[in-house]
Amino acid sequence: MTGANYLLSSGETKILIDCGLNQGGHYAERLNFGTFEYDPKEIKAVFVTHAHIDHTGRLPKLYKEGFRGEIYSTAPTKDFAQALLYDSEDILAREAKRESLEPLYTKENVDQVLTLWQTAEYGKSFKVGPFKITLHDAGHILGSSSIEIEEGGKKIVFSGDLGNVNPPLIKEGEMIIPDADYALIESAYGDRLHESESGRRVKLEDVIIDTVRSGGVLMIPAFAMERTQELIFMIHELMKDQRIPSVPVFLDSPLAIKLTEVYKKYESWFKGDIERLISRGDPLFSFSNLKLTRTTEESKAINDVPAPKIVIAGSGMSHGGRIMHHERQYLSDPQSAILFIGYQAKGSLGREILDGAETVKIFDEEVPVRCRKVEIGGYSAHADQKRLLEWLEPAAHSLKKAFVVQGDEGSSQALKNKIEDELAVRAEVPTRQESVELV
Questions:
Q1: Per DSSP, which regions of 139-289 are E strands?
Q2: Could you give the C-alpha distances from 324 to 22, 166, 338, 361, 414, in angstroms and in order?
Q3: What distance in Å separates the CA atoms of residue 75 and residue 67, rounded to the nearest whole number?
Q4: For residue 68, what pLDDT is reported?
């Protein structure tokens, strides 16, 4: 279950780190409609690590229930969150209607949240009440942050989601500050290692070639932000280098198309070799084989294009979105393939498929799964176990405790054990609503 939301208080001042939607199954999603475990009116500020909905998705609900403080993040995070929150509002409204619940929030609530949103730069500290705040580059997605908070001589760092080694577009994230007293560290991939950079490129190349040769459709459920832009860039590079056949590539996600425009706005945030490509006039996110399908009619027309073809569509866990229509069409085709390039939470349709379900239910229809299933962990925007330990290691001598969060039970427990065994740091997997005094 996801849904990052941490309350930090000192004296009269209460702040939040993230305020995300719970995702990953019906029970988790019902939690979004419950009341907060604190009074939103008492919150002075919210610090957002990055724009993904499991870190921002309940901010409008927070406003709706009385929050009038300030929200802080990097500039790209604010722009991404604006697009994601408006998109999420529409999805949540349909979900609330289906469950006979009051809508979580309205578009007006999103408008109101954005009026409270301030931007901050990496490495430039500022004060909110007694708290000194510094944002550091987490390397997860463009504009993502780890948040360092200092108060009363104690220092705690919230990792946010940490990035993979040598991401295709953005710079690698910074390591933890070496004198932290406490750390909350994510653990989405706390029990596994990713493929090497060269391995993930080869694997992507292979699955495309195999699917094209068999005359099938390659379905890629992709998160609208970062993974989609990385994929477009990599597929373009492979076609330019004549490593893969030239076939139609559909980006079937209005949200991903909007977010790609935000990426173009912040091209100066990319890593050096990507900036050099841009300076030479190489368009990163457009090429002749790429077709952008914004409307429902354009999306449906993809079915009329003969295979082989590649379809990139949201959502990344096949938990809603246009990818489900393509899965209903092609999961039963042995010549086709589905490629997972991101984390699949328990309870999601993507996880069911990946775990080997013989049939899945899509739009109340039982669909056989006969296509090939391929996973490339190396394209995940999340750090793997090795990278998580590397992030924490510089502060191992000073840490009083590490809190392992934001992962399935097995991955969190595995990372906790590694932290204790390899770094000799006390670690805990906290439970929901648990309170801890930092001394």
A1: 145-151, 154-158, 182-186, 217-221, 249-252
A2: 21, 31, 12, 10, 32
A3: 21
A4: 98
This prediction's pTM? 0.88
Alpha helices in 214-322 (DSSP H): 227-240, 254-265, 272-279, 296-301
60 token code pair:
């409008």
Output the furthest CA–CA distance in the chain (Å, rounded).
65
CA gap 428, 177 in Å, rounded? 20
* Residue 178 in tokens: 């070496």
**Alpha-carbon torsion, ordered 102, 108, 112, 115, to 10 deg:** 150
Q: How far is CA 296 from CA 148, 194, 258, 335, 409, in A?
A: 43, 36, 16, 26, 38
Domains recognised in the chain with CATH numbers = 6-192+381-428 (3.60.15.10), 197-379 (3.40.50.10890)
Task: Provide the angle, in degrees to the nearest 10, between the axes of the packed helices 227-240 and 197-213.
Answer: 70
Scan for tokens 């609208």, then name that residue: 224
At 38, list the tokens. 């604190």
Handedness of CA 393, 72, 61, 256 (dihedral sign): negative
Closest CA to 378 of 259, 176, 204, 171: 204
**What is the Cα–Cα distance from 157 to 401, expressed in whole angstroms?**
11
What pLDDT, in 10s, does the model give residues 56-65?
A: 999 999 999 9
pLDDT digits (tens, 9 = 90+) for 63-74: 999 999 999 999
Q: Of the candidates 248, 329, 233, which has an alpha carbon nearest to the alpha carbon of residue 282? A: 233
**How far is CA 248 from each of CA 285, 348, 355, rounded to the nearest angstrom?**
15, 28, 29
Buried b (16+ CB within 10 A) or exposed e, 324-339: bbbbebbbebebbbbb
Full DSSP string of 310-335: EEEES-TTSSSSTHHHHHHHHTT-TT
Q: Which of these, 220, 136, 54, 97, lies nearest to 395 by C-alpha position?
A: 136
